[in-house]
Amino acid sequence: MSHQATAIAHSNIALIKYWGKRDEARMLPMNGSLSLTLDAFYTRTRVRFFPELGEDHVRLDGRTLEGEAARKVSRFLDRVRALKGHEWRAEVDSCNQVPTGAGLASSASAFAALAGAASAAIGLELSPRELSILARKGSGSACRSIFPGFALWQAGTDDQSSYARPVPASNLDDLVMLVVVVNSGHKGLSSREGMRRTVATSPFYPAWVEHAERDLERMRIAVLEGDFTRIGTLAESSAMRMHATMLSAEPPFCYWEGGSLLAMNLVRQLRDEGHECYFTMDAGPNVKIIAREATVPRLRAALGEHFGEEALITARPGPGLRIEDAEAPECR
Ligand code: PMV
């Protein structure tokens, strides 16, 4: 009998951000968040458990992971082993269709795919909610990548009540996220460290939490009603408020680069000219523009002039986690 499975999960970008943990060990967030899963960025992961293997082996994009990165995967596999009651070690092969560490949420697709592949390979039959809870423990935002389209991660009060679920949407099939890759290199401060410092030192942090919960409910309704203007306005405010907590931390930090500011200004300018679009940003310098399909050619032309066509990735609502019958993933 083969103990193997391959899973694909897509990354997601939060419209209402998650920033800060209430409980680091259990990965419970301070506030709820709401995201859009995207078609353009995904991770394909194969997990093979071998009863006779001495230790886990993890390959990412064809290279063997070492040190803390490998241990993080092993600790995650320990959770899966504990759920099943097996000691088996595994070989993990993972391919990212996401520029790793560039603020394009590679950890979200990575841990969602790992949760799916590892649980299936070891013979667990988990519900989407159980998969969301499991993925959360690898990387918070991963709990949202279990689902297609819009997903809401409720903060919850304990391990079993903190998970994501799909959010009903209307008239948003033509929603697009145009990603402006300002810098695809690895980011400086991890989101984990950034969150820790912000929660511990920013005087703005309590205000962030208070507004995030209120905005989350507003966003849920805007998505339900298909109110694009409201979605964009709320998303932009959520991102700006999150970054304000970083600027006000001690010592302060900032993920923006010159190109990020240029992209944000271009979005405002295009909007003033009647091309409705909004921006959001995460723990990296890249800017994601929220728009509708009909506006994309104009946006690509305007942004392309400054950043080049190759720096622009048009992403659309993407699928949730799925298990594949494939052999080892081939990294491109
Ligand atoms: O789950 P993490 O550690 O990748 O943190 C994600 C944090 C943000 O991307 C900045 C916001 C979010 O909700 O995805």
Compact summary:
The protein has 332 residues and is α+β, with helices and mostly antiparallel strands.
Describe this structure in words.
The protein is α+β, with helices and mostly antiparallel strands and 332 residues long. The protein contains eight helices and 14 strands. It has helices at 67-84, 106-122, 128-136, 191-201, 205-225, 228-247, 258-272, 296-307; strands at 4-16, 21-23, 28-29, 33-50, 57-60, 63-64, 89-96, 150-153, 164-166, 175-180, 278-281, 287-292, 312-315, 322-324. Strands 1, 4, 5, 6, 7, 8, 9 and 14 form an eight-stranded mixed β-sheet that branches. It has a four-stranded antiparallel β-sheet with strand order 11-12-10-13. The protein has a two-stranded antiparallel sheet with strand order 2-3. A hairpin with a 4-residue loop joins β2 and β3. α1 (67-84) packs parallel to α2 (106-122), α5 (205-225) packs antiparallel against α6 and α7 (258-272) packs antiparallel against α8. The protein is globular and about 65 Å long. The site of (3R)-3-hydroxy-3-methyl-5-(phosphonooxy)pentanoic acid has 15 residues, from α2 and α4.
Topology:
Elements: E1 4-16, E2 21-23, E3 28-29, E4 33-50, E5 57-60, E6 63-64, H1 67-84, E7 89-96, H2 106-122, H3 128-136, E8 150-153, E9 164-166, E10 175-180, H4 191-201, H5 205-225, H6 228-247, H7 258-272, E11 278-281, E12 287-292, H8 296-307, E13 312-315, E14 322-324
Parallel strand pairs: 5-7
Antiparallel strand pairs: 1-4, 1-14, 2-3, 4-7, 4-8, 5-6, 8-9, 10-12, 10-13, 11-12
Helix pairs in contact: 1-2, 2-3, 5-6, 7-8
The protein binds (3R)-3-hydroxy-3-methyl-5-(phosphonooxy)pentanoic acid.
(3R)-3-hydroxy-3-methyl-5-(phosphonooxy)pentanoic acid binds next to helix 2 and helix 4.
